[in-house]
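Exercise: predict the fold of this chain.
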Amino acid sequence: MAIVKNSPPNTFCWAELCSSDWLKAKAFYLQLFQWTSIDQPIGADCYYTITRKESVDVAAMYQMMASQQAEGIPSHWLPYIAVENVDEKTTLASALGAEVIHGPHDVPGAGRMVMLQEPGGAIFALWQGKEHMGTQRKLEYNVPYWHELASRNAQKSRAFYSGLFGWEIQIKPMDNMDYTLFCIDDKPVAGLIEMTQEWGELPAHWMIYFAVANTNNVAQQATQLGGTVCVPPTDVPGVGCFSVITDPSGAVFSVLHSSAGDVEAR
């Protein structure tokens, strides 16, 4: 697909890393995904780093505040979903049971956002792009490709997200479980997996998958760069080969070599 000019409403549009060790995380991702970066000052010795592929914005990261670290908040990736009106969607999300964590507020020179925690506990953000639409490369290697919700209550999560975004629900049987596809006009935009007892006390969350050319190579390189492979490269028939990785600052993400044939080899 290469460079895109806009993010359709109710689709994922941006990925942002809040890291307990921004410098270490930045070095890790720049090498792993062959990104470059631009550091934008947002305070005293504090920067909002835009990561880029071939001079085009694809994601961002910043240093977690000391107060958040003191509360025990782990490093994490935050997904953003594009909407036409943040304030209207925030009102609807609240009516559907979500909690407003931060905002809505304007981001000067970029757009308007709000951070929400949905009834099942997963955190995500809404983005009303103005000067900045979000990720400008899609369906390419080393950029966000897929988003998957790990939920404690699939039925409740389906009701919330379909109510908020109008997402259609498709249930796909997979390996003794039902996998939920969230769709727009019959086209998948995200997935949902219901957490079982085997997940332990891990909270509900959105997982970001980055498309890669070779999952095995990326997992090996991530280890060499100081990351930890949580789930080794695993083949899923009809989907591709994925791996779950923790970066050196503790944030968890996934990589996927898709078998769908929709990712450009560039």
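Check your answer against the key: The first strand starts at residue 2 and ends at 3.
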